[in-house]
Amino acid sequence: MIAGGGTGGHLYIGIALARELQRRDSARDFLFVGTRRGLEARIVPQEGFRVEFIVSAGLKRVGWRESVRNLFRVPRSLLQARRLIRSFAPGIVVGVGGYSSGPVVLAAWWLGKPTLIMEPNAYPGLTNRLLAPVVNRAALALPDAGRYFGKKAVVTGIPVREEFQRLPGRVRRAGQISLLIYGGSQGSRALNSIVCSSLLDLKEFGSGLRLVHQTGERALEEVRQAYREAGVEGEVQAFFPRIYQQFGDADLILSRAGASTVAELTAAGKAAMLVPFPGAADDHQTRNARALEQHGAAKMIPESEWQPGRLARELRHFMEHPEEIARMEEAARQLARPEATRRIADLIEELAGGGRQ
To answer: How many domains does the chain have?
Structure first.
């Protein structure tokens, strides 16, 4: 049983793990558990897995009234999760993040099932901090989070879909560049604004610039209208379910710096301009972006530094110096942890065979 989701960053960790475990034994059965509002409602069936839903909502970054209301939902969420676990009878429950993972992992502990949680950031989120005393193992992206989980912690890296690791090298042509704007599964208001306010500047590149833009559902029509008004062509979609295909076609990626995005960039060996989300807990996205920049795998540009004309200048520079893209790609590949999915799958098999430890 794989619990969590809400965003692609959480959800695709679970899908990558399920694929690896399925590859090892095709007879294995999987059930994802999330909420009807999350991406899992649409994406999990498309990926060929079953999904069930509980009622769950976040306790942080919401108003106090909503926080209290959501807190009163916890007992119902826990009972729904308990019923699903008793019905499905999983060998192990894996929490991949997102508020729906909390009640399911807690119910699994209540019923004596082995549990493992994924922690992709240096500073664990609230759900994982609360689950730390009851889980059997915590698979970490970074060693910094180890102090929150003690001997349960194992530094593994973050699973990404295998397709990111199999992307062929891209042949670039002089004077041309393909830019992917990737604000994560829900899009990024800041990235949308940076690009839309730059479209008139980008028009001068003509056919030398190809734009592929993932906007998020809410901003789709607004961004498409901005492209139309500027007379700029681009492939603009709310969401690309197989984003690795767009990664493969890109020379450069403009993105946030969440843990899953960073893992995808390194697995794919892609050059990036990273714009950390300034509101991220403990500013972990800035730390992620700075780590890639220090290794020469990306260029970090904070939101506050995106003055008019900046995007056009950056793209012109990279078009004139394609060797810099090649260096960033090689540096990104050096940071990849392709063994992450395999290592976590090993832990899952170990726990599923051994019960509570």
So the answer is: 2
- Is the overall model pTM greater than 0.90, yes or no? no
pLDDT tens-place string over residues 310-353: 999 999 999 999 999 999 999 999 988 889 999 999 999 999 98
Could you tell me the CATH number of the domain that includes residue 308?
A: 3.40.50.2000
pLDDT digits (tens, 9 = 90+) for 139-181: 998 787 899 999 999 999 889 888 999 998 888 777 899 999 9
User: For residues 101 and 86, what is the distance between their CA atoms, to the nearest angstrom?
Assistant: 16
Alpha-carbon distance of 3 to 100, in angstroms, equals 7
How far apart CA 295 and CA 335 sit, in angstroms, is: 8
For the chain, list the strands marked E by DSSP.
2-3, 31-34, 50-53, 93-95, 115-119, 137-140, 153-155, 177-182, 209-214, 235-237, 252-255, 272-274, 298-300
Domain span at residue 279 reads: 164-335
Statement to judge: residues 176 and 107 lie in one domain: no
